[in-house]
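lol forgot to send this yesterday, sorry. struct tokens for the thing we talked abt
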């Protein structure tokens, strides 16, 4: 059996005006052909794909075509979209006979002038391989599922957990794919689109309404007639045509069961809509003070408005300003993605005292902050991560910069947005030695968990703020809950 393999992922925040460029993809590695398998065989979606092939017991020749993954951010530049679109087209042209195609995509990527990047890439793939080649599609569960994704694929599987289980989901998808490509199953999809968006503070699948919903999906999958069930609580900062939550149920040739289960899960999600809107974030000064008063290990301050993993630029100075103004008694660690400052500080060199305008450039929500500090360390920024989906990341020019009680990790590229201790240790900074760390995520605290005492969400403004009702929506279908109060999820 010959299977084509494509992985292209990025998650867009429409409220971040900074475009995602080819350089952003390159910092995570753009790979073609067999290099994809050589580089990524042990982790992430490609590792999960290979595990799925092995588990299937079927003799498979994989034809790897293109792999590009960027950190969440603004829309893709036209240049980067066209680069991948051409790679998909040309790669499939050269692939020879295929029995099936596996596409590992995100589902919430937009580009300049294109709301639905994945729909466009799937259309390009279909143009080459024709309408009948079976196609298995993996999506992040924050995907905005569109009609085009449904039309061009035969089986769709979304992530089961937040933080995400990329390896396991790709493995599950691939096991279905091999059955599909061998003609052993007949996937039948029912899907529902909901007039609903929900903010990040209830994203975690380990508790609250999201756990109830995802647990019910897993329960439905115990029925042997059901192949896969995926709730899609859409990335809540994607202002796209067709935007909104979705549910997908795939059965083995049982359309009415698929329809019934899709309705049931949509109703369940809708019935919890008020719980999904519950926030726990504190006003910034209150959050900083609470973090400073905690006496038991590292406190995480989640910078909700500047979540890099949700698509923000990672250069908000709002919490930094509050920490410096409030005069905390402990020490704080803050990651800052700021190419201009990282280059300036790197050039000044270790030991230099520098005054500069830091951060605040990526989005109109933010503004730069004038600070004076000392450069403690400078590095090239390439870090190996054995326990992360990307095993090697490039942060570009990376500087440990000390401003009063704050140590900043100022980087040129996003890298992993400072969520992993290894990126700090890389420049001789130990996160466990700090009172608090600002994290540019609302969910991915797992790598800091071993030495974290408390997580406090700060209600900061930005392209990923929790108050989604205050954002300038233009493209999502209206009315939509919670911007409008509705009595049904149906459009
Ligand atoms: Zn996601």
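and heres what i got for the seq, position by position
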């Amino acid at each position: 059996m010959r299977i084509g393999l494509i992985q292209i992922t990025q998650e867009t925040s429409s409220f971040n005006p900074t475009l995602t460029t080819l350089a952003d993809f390159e910092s995570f590695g753009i790979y073609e052909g067999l290099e994809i398998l050589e580089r990524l065989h042990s982790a992430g979606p490609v590792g999960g794909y290979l595990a799925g092939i092995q588990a299937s017991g079927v003799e498979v020749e994989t034809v790897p075509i293109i792999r590009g993954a960027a950190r969440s951010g603004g829309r893709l530049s036209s240049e980067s979209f066209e680069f991948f679109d051409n790679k998909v087209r040309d790669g499939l042209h050269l692939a020879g006979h295929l029995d099936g195609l596996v596409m590992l995509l995100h589902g919430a990527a937009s580009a300049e002038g294109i709301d639905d990047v994945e729909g466009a890439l799937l259309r390009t793939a279909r143009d080459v391989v024709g309408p009948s080649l079976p196609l298995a599609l993996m999506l992040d569960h924050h995907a905005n599922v569109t009609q085009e994704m449904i039309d061009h694929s035969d089986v769709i599987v979304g992530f089961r957990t937040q933080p995400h289980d990329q390896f396991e989901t790709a493995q599950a998808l691939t096991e279905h794919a091999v059955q599909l490509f061998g003609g052993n199953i007949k996937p039948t999809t029912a899907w529902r689109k909901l007039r609903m968006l929900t903010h990040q503070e209830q994203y975690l699948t380990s508790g609250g309404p999201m756990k109830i919903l995802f647990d019910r999906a897993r329960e439905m999958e115990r029925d042997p007639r059901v192949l896969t069930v995926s709730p899609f609580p859409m990335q809540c900062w994607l202002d796209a045509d067709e935007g909104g939550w979705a549910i997908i149920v795939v059965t083995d040739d049982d359309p009415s069961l698929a329809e019934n289960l899709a309705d049931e899960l949509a109703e369940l999600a809708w019935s919890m809509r008020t719980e999904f809107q519950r926030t726990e974030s504190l006003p910034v000064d209150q959050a900083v003070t609470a973090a400073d008063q905690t006496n038991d290990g590292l406190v995480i301050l989640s910078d909700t408005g500047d979540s890099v993993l949700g698509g923000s630029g990672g250069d908000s100075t709002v919490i930094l300003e509050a920490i410096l103004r409030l005069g905390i008694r402990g020490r704080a660690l803050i990651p800052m993605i700021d190419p201009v400052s990282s280059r300036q500080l790197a050039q000044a060199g270790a030991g230099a005292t520098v005054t500069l305008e830091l951060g605040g450039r990526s989005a109109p929500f933010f503004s730069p902050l004038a600070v004076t500090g000392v450069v403690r360390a400078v590095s090239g920024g390439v870090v190996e991560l054995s326990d992360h989906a990307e095993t090697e990341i490039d942060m570009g020019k990376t500087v440990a910069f000390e401003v009063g009680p704050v140590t900043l990790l100022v980087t040129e590229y996003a890298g992993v947005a400072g969520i992993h201790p290894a990126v700090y240790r890389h420049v001789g900074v130990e996160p466990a030695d700090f009172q608090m760390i600002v994290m540019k995520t609302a969910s991915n605290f797992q790598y800091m968990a071993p030495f974290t005492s408390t997580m406090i969400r700060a209600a900061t403004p930005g392209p990923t703020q929790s108050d989604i009702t205050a954002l300038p929506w233009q493209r999502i279908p209206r009315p939509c809950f919670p911007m409008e109060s509705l009595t049904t999820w149906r459009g």
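The pocket of zinc ion is lined by residues 140, 142, 164 (CB under 6 Å). anyway ping me if u want another try
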